[in-house]
Design a protein that fits this description.
heterodimer, A: mainly alpha, two-stranded antiparallel sheet, 4 helices, B: mainly alpha, globular, Brnchd-chn_aa_trnsp_AzlD (chain A), transmembrane (chain A), transmembrane helix (chain A)
Chain lengths: 101, 226
């Protein structure tokens, strides 16, 4: 990794970030399109949840990780406080790994 | 009324603190891993300040550590970070109107800030959530990367603490309210299926972008316009 590589990655990433807020201004978007955009952010986030809890690299992550996320998800669904959700997920995964899952 | 606001804000800050604590541990391990991979201590620090996207940072350093070229690392990182464009389109209004707010706020556009902003009902709270989460995570992430880079390999594998489960669980908890909407839920499920099915075959980052294909659900079952 070189400083140049870091700078190129930084500039490119910032461009992706800035493009959204700036483009949104230029375009007078109908309500339907705005709704679709917030829906697309949710779709991206959920896909990120799915891939980062089931896959590691290009293969299956093992059971400990998805089970931990699922336990956290169930806690959230049962209206548990956010901190409990996060801790429960991490503790479940860590515990299962300790048991060799 | 005022006390309701206070309680809500305290709850929000506590939630943000929980996410920031998780980010701090992964930041420390990022710093440690980078130094272990042979980078000078300041390079992961500069990278964290300027790139500020954990996933792409871990991936870029991992590719170089595995013998890949810096160009390949940059390309992979950019593909992974392309999702920030649709994120910005979705929550662009939350940043604020001024140019400075936009320029600074854009740098804080990360998975967590987007999820926190989307989880709020009214715009004022969404803005407060976005900025408090962004500032807290920026501080926690960067401070811990410095600490990790200096402490080096003394820091263990974050997976042993189950921290890799904390990130998806936090995002899931934040997106649950939006999933009450049937159409959004169907789009998200279809999109996730597409992302999971394509992960074994595509470079990291692309499968998540392909999940946007799940949005076809939003167009189905609607009366034909025009």
């Amino acid at each position: 990794m070189t400083l140049t590589a870091v700078l190129v990655l930084a500039v490119g990433t910032y461009a992706f970030r800035l493009a959204g807020p700036l483009l949104r201004d230029r375009l007078a978007l109908p309500a339907k399109a705005r709704e679709l955009m917030s829906m697309s952010a949710t779709v991206l986030l959920v896909a990120l949840v799915a891939t980062s809890s089931l896959m590691k690299g290009q293969g299956f992550a093992g059971w400990a990780l998805p089970v931990g996320v699922l336990v956290g998800g169930l806690a959230a669904w049962r209206k548990a406080p956010f901190v409990v959700v996060v801790l429960l997920a991490a503790a479940t995964t860590a515990g299962l790994r300790l048991l060799g899952a | 009324m005022r006390s309701i606001w206070r309680t809500l804000d305290q709850r929000l800050l506590r939630d943000v603190a929980a996410v920031a604590a998780g980010a701090a541990v992964s930041g420390a391990s990022f710093g440690a891993i980078s130094v272990a991979a042979g980078l000078p201590w300041w390079l992961p620090v500069v990278m964290s300040l300027l790139v500020f996207a954990g996933g792409s940072q871990f991936m870029a350093v991992g590719i170089v550590a595995a013998g890949g070229s810096p160009a390949a690392a940059v390309l992979a990182g950019l593909v992974l970070n392309a999702r920030h464009l649709p994120f910005g389109l979705a929550v662009g209004d939350v940043l604020g109107r001024g140019l400075v707010a936009r320029l600074v706020g854009s740098h804080l556009l990360i998975d967590e800030t987007v999820a926190f902003a989307l989880a709020q009902r009214d715009p004022a709270r969404a803005r407060a959530a976005y900025w408090s989460c962004g500032v807290a995570l920026f501080g926690a992430w960067n401070a811990s990367v410095v600490a990790g880079a200096l402490a080096g390999q003394a820091i263990g594998d974050p997976a042993a603490f189950g921290l890799d489960a904390a990130f998806p669980a936090a995002l899931l908890a934040l997106t649950l309210p939006a999933l009450k909407d049937r159409k959004t839920r169907h789009a998200a499920l279809l999109g996730s299926a597409v992302a999971l099915a394509t992960t074994p075959f595509l470079p990291a980052g692309l499968p998540v972008l392909l999940a946007l294909g799940g949005l076809v659900v939003a167009f189905s079952g609607k009366a034909v316009r025009a």
